[in-house]
């Protein structure tokens, strides 16, 4: 059986509640047990004309996507986009090997990744132009082997994209750059529209979930500094649920993020990508995800997307439009007259 569509989760139109309300399988893991995938998390095998076209373009230009490297469950929908819809992808810059090894992530790790491809900013902009996208998400592996963590490479890619299409919206989902705020600043002033950096999980689970070189306060400083440097920039972060967090920990984390000035928030279900990664501790129900979306909105986030299959970059363009509308409204109300500039 196939569970309700993700749009129903986000919009609250759970017309087919029976599929998941009557599910009798365990949702919380017992010691020594591996949970079965509940029906609302099952997805179709990715196929289609747009999917194949996008995949071939990525291969030909030697690009990488987080969609593939992180084994995202939404790859079929985002890359396929329907027969006539625009396909979208999250480009992963600086190679496919990360210098860190977070316990939830399936991306390859290496102490000495390959050198940066100097043609990657150009090739990325060319691919995006060929696809005709009006919104693109750029992310990357961690590159602790580089002096600036790859910040200049990010900035060059944004510049190439904006030169080809000044109207394109660019979101950068960045590493923490080991807390180097100059690197954060370099990207924040590069011309992008959304600065994203994921805290990944609640404060209390950081050491178990993330690489030891990452921590909650360091991530908060990245998000805060991006806004400090460019106040009109939208900031965004994402949290995975199902790793053993408590409701109190989630609520406390959301409150801290909002107090730090984060504008947009996404919450999604953690799904174990390989046997080497952390096991799922709990499959959170769609109803509970709806609850957290309500909490996020009540705390004052400009936009909260919360659902089992929601991922940091899922439908990012749609999310950006909602955030921008609310952001402009806030600026008009509290700081009028204001002239926005990028």
TrEMBL record:
GO biological process: protein lipoylation
This protein's pathway: Protein modification; protein lipoylation via endogenous pathway; protein N(6)-(lipoyl)lysine from octanoyl-[acyl-carrier-protein]: step 2/2
Gene Ontology CC annotation, any one: mitochondrion
Cofactors: [4Fe-4S] cluster
Subcellular location: Mitochondrion
Top-level taxon of the source organism: Eukaryota
CDD domains xrefs: Radical_SAM
Co-factor: note: Binds 2 [4Fe-4S] clusters per subunit. One cluster is coordinated with 3 cysteines and an exchangeable S-adenosyl-L-methionine.
Record-annotated membrane-spanning stretches: none
Alphabetized Pfam families for the sequence: LIAS_N, Radical_SAM
Binding site for [4Fe-4S] cluster 1: 67, 72, 78, 313
Chief localization: mitochondrion
Signal peptide bounds: none
Keyword S-adenosyl-L-methionine in annotation: yes
Protein's recorded name: Lipoyl synthase, mitochondrial
């Amino acid at each position: 059986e196939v569970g309700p569509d993700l749009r129903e989760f986000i919009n609250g139109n759970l017309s087919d509640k029976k599929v998941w309300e009557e599910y009798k399988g365990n949702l919380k893991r017992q010691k020594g047990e591996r949970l079965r995938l509940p029906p609302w998390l099952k997805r179709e095998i990715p196929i289609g004309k747009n999917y194949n076209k996008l995949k071939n373009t990525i291969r030909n230009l030697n690009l990488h996507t987080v969609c593939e490297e992180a084994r995202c469950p939404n790859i079929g929908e985002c890359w396929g986009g329907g027969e006539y819809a625009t396909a979208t992808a999250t480009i992963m810059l600086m190679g496919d090997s990360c210098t860190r090894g977070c316990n939830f992530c399936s991306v390859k790790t290496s102490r000495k990744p390959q050198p940066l491809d100097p043609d990657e900013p150009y090739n990325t902009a060319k691919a995006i132009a060929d696809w005709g996208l009006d919104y693109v998400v750029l992310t990357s592996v961690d590159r602790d082997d580089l002096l600036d963590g790859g910040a200049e490479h990010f900035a060059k890619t944004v510049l190439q994209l904006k030169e080809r299409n000044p109207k394109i919206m660019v979101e950068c989902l960045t590493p923490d750059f080991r807390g180097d705020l100059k690197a954060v600043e370099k990207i924040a002033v590069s011309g992008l529209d959304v600065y994203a950096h994921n805290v990944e999980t609640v404060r209390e689970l950081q050491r178990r979930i993330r690489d030891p070189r990452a921590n909650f306060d360091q991530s908060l400083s990245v998000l805060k500094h991006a806004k400090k440097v460019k106040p009109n920039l939208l900031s965004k972060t994402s949290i995975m649920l199902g790793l053993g967090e408590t409701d109190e920990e989630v609520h406390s984390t959301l409150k801290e993020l909002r107090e730090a000035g984060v504008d947009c928030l996404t919450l999604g279900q953690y799904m174990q990508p390989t046997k080497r990664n952390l096991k799922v501790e709990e499959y959170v129900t769609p109803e509970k995800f709806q609850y957290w979306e309500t909490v996020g909105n009540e705390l004052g986030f400009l936009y909260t997307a919360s659902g089992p299959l929601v991922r940091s970059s899922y439908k990012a363009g749609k999310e950006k439009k909602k955030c921008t509308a609310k952001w402009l409204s806030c600026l008009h109300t509290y700081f009028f007259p204001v002239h926005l500039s990028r």
